[in-house]
Amino acid sequence: MADINRDIRAALEGKLANIVGIPPIAYENVNYDPTLGTSYVKSSFQPVSRRPAARGLNPQQLYTGNFIVTVYSPEGNGPGTADAIAETLVEAFEATTDISYTNASAETIIVSIDYAERRQGIHDTPWYFIPVVIRWYIYK
Fold first, then answer.
1. What is the span of the domain harbouring residue 96?
2. Helices of type H across 3-106
3. Which end of the chain is more exposed for a tag (fewer CB within 10 A), N or C?
4. pTM for the structure as a whole
């Protein structure tokens, strides 16, 4: 049986990688040295729960979680750049979006987006950053 969390992460990161108009991506547990003065985004995969979707023998499981994409832009230039990137992400992961992914075993899964929302911007020298929370779910 395939590792469902690995497949969900791959689906979400694949969608992120194909968004036009966003800066470089810093993936989890991959070395990335940001260039001062240049925007980038950082992804984080957070599985939250695995629960039976119904009662009975061998019920389908409902998996839920968050995919957090944090937008980093250089401090001191106002929020406009980070706001624009965050809006691009929210639009790309619009509620009710379905993301199809086929793993190495030729099994296709569909990851559904419940919502995507921008959080408050935060200043932390030398960056201004905005977290974008993408809530996902999948029945398997």
1. 4-32+46-139
2. 4-17, 80-92
3. N
4. 0.93
